[in-house]
Amino acid sequence: MHFVFFVGTAGSGKSTLTSIFSEKLREWEFDVATVNLDPGDSWLPYAPDVDIREFVDIYKVMEAYQLGPNGALVACVDIATSKADQLREEIEMLKPDYVLVDTPGQMELFAYRNSGLFMASALSQGDYCIVFLVDAMFAERPADFLSALLLSSSIQSRFQAPQINVVSKKDLLSKETLGKVYKWVEEPERLIDELALEEKGMRRELACKLFESLSELGLLSSFFAVSSTTGEGLDELHAELQRVFERGEV
Ligand SMILES: Nc1nc2c(ncn2[C@@H]2O[C@H](COP(=O)(O)OP(=O)(O)O)[C@@H](O)[C@H]2O)c(=O)[nH]1
Ligand SMILES: [Mg+2]
User: Of 58, 103, 226, 231, which is the most exposed, with the fewest CB atoms less than 10 Å away?
Assistant: First the structure.
């Protein structure tokens, strides 16, 4: 039972990828369970097999603890974490090969709080991989791409689990832009040169130094693009996941 946690900024395409990738895996004859960990989502593009909303009701939490929507979302994730064993039991009953976990729209709820890490560990009992989505709109400019990489590196250091970085919504990027991103990843000096052209003074120095460190840490080693609209890159995503789960590496 391999767990795949989709993590990324709000709107980066986590829920859509959970939906489309689960269909693809089923087409390839794998048993798949989908899990929604977003207590505040009112609509999802798939019918989750296991749903945090069955365990916590955000409106009741708002009322009971006199919280606004943001505070209630945080409380919901904390409450659900205390029920991780029950969630795991529900998942186990489905006997899936893959468990695709859709994390909250506001990634800080899951990724920057201890409950996210506790939840991931308790649900998967250690057998998990993070797929970090970089929204296509962050791939247009070097400074935006660098910010996305910083987020990815902070997830990497918090979870210390195998992590695959993907650019989502590939269909929205021109061939030229995509080619540029691949070149940045293959030859980080190019991104540094472009950053140097765009940024000035301290910002330039900081941006270049950060990118150098990220590239030295190997954070750029696996990077490819996927599209939930056209299905491009999903076979590559599956191949990477198999590599991670079979050999425990990224
Ligand atoms: N063009 C395009 N749009 C996408 C793709 N994936 C998601 N979207 C759109 O991006 C928006 C946010 O997607 P969603 O999956 O809800 O993001 P989440 O907040 O990360 O779960 C929705 O309007 C989706 O239809 C994609 O591969 N291509
Ligand atoms: Mg979502």
Answer: 231
Indicate whether residue 227 lines ligand 1 (CB < 6 A). Answer: yes
Q: How far is the CA of 25 from the centre of ligand 1 (A)?
A: 19
Q: Is the CB of 172 under 6 A from ligand 1?
A: yes
Q: Residue 222 in contact with residue 166, Cβ under 8 Å?
A: no
Cα 59 to Cα 68, 69, 77, 124, 233, distances in angstroms: 10, 8, 13, 28, 38
Judged by DSSP in three states, 214 sits in helix
pTM: 0.93
Give me the domains of the chain, ranges plus CATH numbers.
Answer: 1-126 (3.40.50.300), 131-226 (3.40.50.300)
pLDDT digits (tens, 9 = 90+) for 122-173: 999 988 999 999 999 999 888 888 888 888 888 988 888 999 999 999 999 9
Which of 93, 105, 110, 96 lies closest to 12, judged by CA? 105
Asked if 36 contacts 131 with a C-beta cutoff of 8 angstroms, the reply is no
Cβ–Cβ under 8 Å, residues 115 and 81: yes
